[in-house]
Structure formats: C-alpha cells, structure tokens
Specification:
flat; mainly alpha; two-stranded antiparallel sheet; 5 helices; 66% helix
C-alpha cells in the first residue's frame, strides 16, 4: 500500500488530505463553511422553536386574560345577585385564583423565552450563567428557556430549600 492509497479527497472542495482527521481539523475551507452553515441552520431551528413556544404562551395568556376580565367585571358577584350562594362565590373565587396563578406562570415563562431569544441573538444561548459551561442539549430540548446546567440548577434548588428550612426554624 502506497501513500497515495491512503489519501482522502474532500467532497466539498476536492482538496486531498493525509487523513480524515486532517480534513476535519478545519484544514478545508469549504468544510469549515459547511459546518458554519449547519450551525446557522441549528440556530435558526432553535430560534423558530423558541418563537413558537413564546407565541403559544402569549396566545394562552390572551385566552386567560379574557376570562379574568369577565369574572372581575364589577357586580358579577355580589350578595344580592344570582350568585349570592356562598358555594357559587367560593367556586368562582377558586377558579379566579387558578386562572391568576396560571397567568402568572405563563407570564414568567414568556419572559424567560424572550430572554432566551435575546441570549441566542447575543450568541450566549446554551451557556450556563453560573459556571459558564455548555448546557446539555437534552436539557435545552426539554426546556429551551433554561439558563443553568443541571449541576448549577441543583445547587440553586438546594440553597433555596436550605434557606426556607432555616427561615422556618
């Protein structure tokens, strides 16, 4: 076997390399451009997903917003009206509290998704804000708005739990 039989030709640019490793070590300008193009495609896909989830959260907020406005209409629940029964008032109040809690969670999520889009724009998306390490792709796939890796998030939660235990003691 001669050296010529071991050479690798790049399908992108036609350059010849001694090994696959040399071709992949960014010696090939076209291959580098291809990886950059693939990276842009991945970023575009992530941005589209975050934008879809943000739009979905905003739609849910609009739906819930209408329900809260109707229920909070002055005079909807009073002592003399058709819903004067304490059980009916209790149910309406319970429903209102659930809607308000749901709205609060949706607002928080929408804000986190908007912040994720900003981090993506600044090329900081997927980097843990605590330790600076890369956040696992599976974690970002499950929750695209996260800002910490699993290890740092666990540390945050343990610290928060310890703070609550100390405060209640």
């Amino acid at each position: 076997m001669t050296l010529c039989e071991n050479l690798i030709r790049c399908f992108d640019c036609g350059c010849v390399f001694v090994s696959v490793e040399a071709a992949l070590a960014e010696d090939c300008p076209r291959s580098r451009e291809g990886r950059q193009r693939e990276g842009r495609i991945v970023v575009d896909q992530v941005r589209e997903r975050i934008e879809r989830e943000l739009a979905s959260a905003m739609d849910r907020l609009r739906q819930l917003g209408g329900a809260v406005v109707i229920e909070e209409f002055p005079g909807a629940v009073d002592n003399d009206g058709p819903l004067a029964d304490p059980a009916d008032r209790g149910k309406i109040n319970e429903d209102r509290e659930v809607i308000l809690a749901t709205r609060s969670l949706l607002v928080e999520r929408a804000n986190r998704l908007a912040e994720a889009l900003e981090r993506l724009r600044k090329s900081q998306y997927g980097i843990c804000e605590e330790c600076g390490e890369v956040i696992a792709p599976a974690r970002l796939q499950a929750m695209p708005e996260v800002t910490t890796c699993v290890r740092c998030q666990g540390r945050r939660e343990r610290t928060a739990t310890q703070g609550r235990v100390t405060a209640s003691s």
